Amino acid sequence: MPVELKMPALSPTMEEGTLARWLKREGDSVAPGDILAEIETDKATMEFEAVDEGVLERIAVLEGTENVKVGTVIAFLRGADEGEASSTPSPVREEAAAASDGGASGDPEKSTADAATLVPAPAHASHPAGSHRTASGRTVTVREALRDAMAEEMRRDPRVFVMGEEVAQYQGAYKVTQGLLDEFGKKRVIDTPITEYGFAGIGTGAAMAGLRPIVEFMTFNFAMQAIDHIVNSAAKTNYMSGGQMRCPVVFRGPNGAASRVAAQHSQNFAPWYASVPGLVVIAPYDAADAKGLLKAAIRSEDPVVFLENELLYGRSFALDEDEEQVLPIGKAKIVREGRDVTLVSYSIGVGFALEAAETLAAEGIEAEVLDLRTIRPLDRQAILDSLARTNRLIVAEEGWPTCSVASEVMALCMEEGFDDLDAPVLRVCNEDVPLPYAANLEQLALINADKIVAAARRICPK
Amino acid sequence: MSKPHDSAPDAQVPSLRSLQDQFASNTRYPASADEKLAFYRQMLLIRRFEEKAGQLYGLGLIGGFCHLYIGQEAVAIGLQSALNPEVDSVITGYRDHGHMLAYGIDPKIIMAELTGRHSGISRGKGGSMHMFSTAHKFYGGHGIVGAQVALGGGLALAHQYNEDGGLCLAYFGDGAANQGQVYETFNMAALWKLPIVFVVENNRYAMGTAVERSSAETEFHRRGAAFRIPGMHVDGMDVLQVRQAAEVAFAYVRDGNGPVLMECSTYRYRGHSMSDPAKYRTREEVQEFKEQRDPIEAIKRLLVEDGTAEDDLRAIDKEIRAIVAAAADFAETSPEPEPEELYTDVLVDSYSGSAPAIPAAEHAR
Q: Using the beta-carbon criterion (under 8 Å), do B187 and A329 form an inter-chain contact?
């Protein structure tokens, strides 16, 4: 039997990629370590190496094919000691043919997994149809939206610059700063050593001197090394100086759980930073908010902690071609209207809440989904207004429950929304444990739509 | 195959000792009579101001932590007198009163900050450890040991970014010199050739811990060697030496050569803070510095040798005492901040979407 060569996962969060180029042809012999193909993800181009010796008997996915799912069989390798006989299925010939005639190829289970490829990257399944649609219908990923926000602000204001690990030559560890070095040069796109405490301090000091630094943390887990400068240096400067000295710095990077990276790399710091007076804390969900709020963050005179999410980087959302809009900081947004229960969330949790709302709608429960967008200052009025309409509220948060943003929203509902409550406010959070590595345990620990649905059923009358 | 460097490491850098050698050839700044008199006045102002602050602390008019600069005056005056006040920036830790006075900032508003009054330089919200004057390019006044070094790196980055020709003077103590972020900053400052002079004010004690008990390398000027930062070792009790060292270091930094690490050996006469009984050192040790190494007495002797009349010096003393008395009076009589000040300056911008936080007082009702 020939060995099936499958589309490899090149990063913890990769779901699909483009088979850019085959470096071996059918019939070529292959030794372990030979580069078989180049595979492009939205982040990088990677080489796909052979592990076994043999002959490349058949190529199942042609070069240039986009959106090939991880695990798809892309070629067959005949072992060195096997005969010539071949029983491999037909390859996917042309993308177009495959797309229009998905069932035609030999193994619909496998090799057509990439068949649905010509459709532009689809919006996330939980995306409510139409709610984000704009006139142009263009979609962009959150990653592109963030990059565009920085590029636009850097064009507009020469004081704005980016610094962090791998932001320049490497084009960003998660490719969020892709292309910035080429456009703005190394003076304004600065690669730092791995030295978070030091470069967070340097960025903060540069802001004190009147520049507009964007300090990228590869992830916010590493920002704990630098949290002293965020809290003690940046947040308190304006107050301690009696309004004399400002600190307009943006600290940004991915926050929260990624995928299978375990406890030290999976933590939501929103409640930590949101507890600090003097900081603005933003955690957007979709591309338009990512762009509009990052632009606002860069223009803000205050220090901003801008919490992104790795799992959202590659997700596409509709965004107007000419969207240069700077969105208001401190304003929540109703992303789905409903009368029976309010689901309050932010960042990746919004996706789960929208998914839950779909399920609940089928059961006759109309959930309103409120995306906080800014965690500090919190849009208290938007929460209370929604509660006054629905009289039931659940906070969905991808993070620990104890001393969480959820805790804060619940306290607000008790203090100021008590008379509007028809049921106890519930929170749906991650389990109160360090995030485990094992796939099944990780899944159990994290928030998902089903958990939100279950909570809603508890407090909504049949 | 990796092979060792072809050249000796120091061949790539002129010499990590080049500045020290240059300085050693002439350690005394050739001050004019007027300059010497100015140094005397400024150091005396710091001395008398700090003595008064100590007094007010004892009377309960100054609260919290209060770190006096008595004994270290020559460092701030020697260095800051060599700055270009139009462009250069200064940052230090919490022992910051002297550095502000060295700038000529009004002693009244500094003292009023110490007493926590509305007319204080931070409107009473910063206190002794957190004072700033952006007008003078004085960026604090930082309470976390070592933080000012990285922040100073940022100020230097801004000088380089803006191409304004300025440099940053970042002071820290022998205690802060053991913080990790100091070395993170050394690395980036050298890597990017930032215009910054790192000044270790080695007053021998990190709070109550003598340098020998805290530091494997007590020659702090050597600690930049791993980053190819040239070091200088200066007698911080001699204002003319400090000033001369500043001339050498600043010229090097302004030429775009990157950072300098300057160690100033100095001594604080008082405890670490007002609450420190200073049991970790002998009375004799303190006495020896006061009697034989005092920076103000030293410059005074030079002035007398130069023929300055004793009466003229006495007149300066009197004038300084009057300035300090007026500052103390101002600081005692100024009103405290209005209660509304509690909520001002938390954020600069207002974010319309958010309802204001409920004041605690209303909560309690």
A: no
Q: For residue B73, what is the enclosing H or E element?
A: helix B73-80
Measured over the CA atoms of residue A309, residue B184, residue A234 and residue A267, the dihedral's sign is: positive
Residue A427 lies in a domain: yes
Judgement on whether residues A200 and A287 belong to the same structural domain of the protein: yes
**Alpha carbon distance A68, A15 (integer Å):** 8
Element of type H or E holding B342: none
CB contact under 8 A, A331 and B345: no
- Map tokens 């040790």 to a residue: B285
Residue A207 vs residues A233, A300, B4, B48, B259: alpha-carbon distances, Å: 11, 12, 41, 35, 20
Burial class (CB in 10 A: 0-12, 13-18, 19+), A46: middle
B139 to A208: CB separation less than 8 angstroms, yes or no: yes
Task: Name the DSSP class of A68.
Answer: E
Q: Is B202 helix (H, G, I), strand (E, B) or coil?
A: strand
Q: How far is B6 from chain A (nearest CA, A)?
A: 25
Separation CA B355–CA B361 (nearest Å): 17
Antiparallel, parallel or unpaired: β A393-396 and A374-376: unpaired
The listed CATH number (3.40.50.970, 3.30.450.40, 3.40.50.1110, 1.10.10.10) that belongs to domain B32-341: 3.40.50.970
DSSP for B256-300 reads T---EEEEEE---SS-SSTT---TTS-HHHHHHIIIII-HHHHHH
Q: Are residues A221 and A74 in the same domain?
A: no
| Inter-chain CB proximity B147 and A233 less than 8 Å | yes
Domain total in chain A: 3
**Looking at this protein, which amino acid is placed at residue A200?**
A
Query: A175 with A313, same domain?
Result: yes
Separation of alpha carbons A383 and A380, rounded Å: 5
Domain that holds residue A437: 333-459
Confirm whether A72 is domain-assigned. yes
Q: A201 and A99 in one domain?
A: no
CATH of the domain at A420: 3.40.50.920
Query: What tens-digit pLDDT sequence spans chain B (365 residues)?
Result: 444 444 444 545 557 889 999 999 999 999 999 999 999 999 999 999 999 999 999 999 999 999 999 999 999 999 999 999 999 999 999 999 999 999 999 999 999 999 999 999 999 999 999 999 999 999 999 999 999 999 999 999 999 999 999 999 999 999 999 999 999 999 999 999 999 999 999 999 999 999 999 999 999 999 999 999 999 999 999 999 999 999 999 999 999 999 999 999 999 999 888 888 778 999 899 999 999 999 999 999 999 999 999 999 999 999 999 999 999 999 999 999 999 999 999 999 999 654 444 444 444 33
Same domain (yes/no): A190, A284: yes
Q: Which pair of tokens denotes residue B279?
A: 């049991």
Contact (Cβ atoms closer than 8 angstroms) between residue A249 and residue A213: yes
- From A194, which residue of chain B is nearest by alpha-carbon distance? B184
For residue B303, which of B29, B37, B64 has the smallest C-alpha distance? B37
Tokens of A416: 């100021």
Convert B296-312 to b/e letters by CB count within 10 Å (16 or more is b).
bebbbebbeeeebeeee
Same domain, A308 and A200: yes
Name the residue of chain A whose CA is nearest to B184's CA. Answer: A198
Q: How many interchain CB pairs under 8 A, A with B?
A: 187
User: Has A132 been annotated as catalytic?
Assistant: no
Cα atoms found within 13 Å of the Cα of residue B10, Cβ hemisphere only: 9
Best of B122, B138, B184 to substitute, by most chain A Cβ atoms within 10 angstroms, is: B184
Cα separation, B40 vs B295, in Å, equals: 9
Q: Do residue A197 and residue B191 have CB atoms under 8 angstroms apart?
A: no
Q: Closest chain B residue to A234 measured between Cα atoms?
A: B151
Annotated domain spans of chain B: 32-341
